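Sanity check record (used in CI):
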Amino acid sequence: MRWGRCDFSQLRELRDRIERLSRVDFDVFCRQIANDLAKRLLSMTIRRTPVGKYPAGSGKTGGTLRRGWVVSRVKKTGNYYEITVSNSVLYAMYVEYGHRQEPGRYVPTINARLKASWVPGKFMLTISTKTLERQIPRLIERKLRAYLEDVF
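Expected output for HK97 gp10 family phage protein:
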């Protein structure tokens, strides 16, 4: 009867790496992903937000709506991580979803009369959210792969 020799060093190394993986804090990883996704959504939304155009000499500049976008801190509720992207500018909702107006009314701010009874929304946040939702699986997979490669 012959006994073979076997090198178990690679199995021991794998065991050590798996033990390291069990000590990894996935809460930190999930918070990092949530922050990355929120930054990406914020960037996409800001790019889609229209900037107001005012007559020369009015002393007004556009961009208030763009500057109004903010991201909250990551909040963990049960097994879910939440981040809120919002805009505190008073008219943000009307630009996002559209609004009614009275045709023929004169508006001194823009020095013109209103023509349409309905102004369609721009859906800056809505479109950005839908676009990001399609990208999320690929982004998370890439981050998770890089994270696991560091461990292994």
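The chain has one domain: 9-151. If this sentence no longer matches the regenerated tokens, the check is flagged for review.
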